[in-house]
Amino acid sequence: TQSTWVVLLFVMRKFTEKFIYVANIFYIGLLVLLGIACVLAGSFLGAIVLLICAGIYAWWFWHAQDRIPFATVMLSTATQILAKYPALVVVSFAGAICIVIYSVFFLFMVHAGQQASGALWILFVLMFYWSTEVFKNVVYTTCCGTASSWYFLRDQAENPTRGALRRTLTYSFGSVCLGSLIVALLKTIRLVLRAMMDQAREGGGIFGMLACFILCCVECVIGWIESLLEYFNEYAYAYVAIYGKKYTTAAKDVLELLKQCGIIGIINDQLISTVLLLCVLFTGVVVGAAAGLTARSAAVGVVGFLVGASICSIVVSIINACVITLFVCFAEEPGALQASNPTLYAALEQANSGFRAVPPAGPPPPAMVPAAPM
Fold it and tell me: Which CA distances in Å does 245 have to 37, 148, 233, 236, 363?
């Protein structure tokens, strides 16, 4: 697993632009192949949906090609940050281990509380979702703080991960918990709605079918809101890590960023997220194939795929945090990059020419001082 994603990181860093093209074209081809598979299986509705999605994505990718140079510089720089600060990998794996341990502990709690009331069960689920979200977002905010330290201080930031982690667990911990709580509430509501749908389905009858349909629609809407909020929080936590702001203030800044940059950030994220998804799938397939062929067992191969994909997803989550942080920093403080890394500044400006006016150069924000190693 380690050798696979190390090779992928090397390829992404050396052939970033080609990798973006290959990943997005592969994604379109994968949708087409799945559509053909649905036709062969007799599922014509699924084939139509997949082929329409492939056509829409192909149209979008064709018109988003002028953003690939900017995404190339962002992705390449993010891999450099990861290579420079391997402590990010340690923090990310530590967070994943904490989530696993807490999940096992929660299962024991569930087994011990089988006679608990419905309200207490909902409280248990909410606490589980909230805790796991906090673990995940502490790691994410730490990665953002490390990337922002590199952006503003570069070579002066010798070991910024420790300082970023300490600030996340102290100054910014309340903001992380608040954002995590909102997402956890939505996840809990969706779980309750699914349980209500199961009861309505078991009840049968016309009213049961109608109730199940209404609950399904509500659950889909809340799921869409949850996904949108999770994406929104990625930028909010970046502001929290960079400037040490409260979650509510950071949320307002994200809205201002969207007004300033429009869909440029979304296009950049989509181009890069497709690359990261390909990395996860490729690692899972390689590890799963190696494990399955070695053990001569399909079950072992499936387990290997899941393990390889899970480990790789931890690594690519660091890259995703670095990309978003770089985007926020460059949108808010391009002059700071001009002072710390003129070469990267020139590359980003060239790739981003014609999309926005360059704000005047300025000093690093005051909140960056505590992000240095403490």
Answer: 49, 14, 13, 9, 18
- Given a cut of 80, is residue 364 above it in pLDDT? no
End-to-end CA distance of the chain: 33
Using the CB atoms, write b or e for 310-336: b if 16+ within 10 Å. Answer: ebbbbbbbbbbbbbbbbbbbbbbbbbb
- Other CB atoms within a 10 A radius of the CB of residue 14 amount to 11
Phi first, then psi: give them for residue 362, nearest 5 degrees.
-150, 170
**Whole-number Å distance between alpha carbons of 302 and 146:** 35
Helices 298-332/205-243 angle, 10° precision = 50
Distance CA 101, CA 92 (A): 14
CA distance 173 to 265: 26
d(CA 274, CA 71): 12
- Number of other CB atoms surrounding residue 118 within 10 Å: 9
Q: Which residue has better confidence, 176 or 122?
A: 176
Residue by residue, DSSP assigns 98-123 as HHHHHHHHHHHHHHHTTT--HHHHHH
For residues 328-340, give the mean pLDDT.
Answer: 87
Tokens of residue 101, six digits = 């341990």
**Residue 166 CA to its chain's centroid (Å):** 22
User: Contact at 8 Å (CB) between 151 and 323?
Assistant: no
Give the whole-angstrom CA distance, residue 271 versus residue 203: 45
CA atoms of 143 and 238, how far apart (whole Å): 9
Cα radius of gyration rounded to whole Å, the chain: 22
- pTM (2 decimals)? 0.87
Instruction: Report d(CA 16, CA 346) in Å as an integer.
Output: 18
Cβ(74)–Cβ(323) below 8 Å? yes
pLDDT of residue 158: 72
Residue pair 32/51 in contact by the 8 Å Cβ criterion? yes
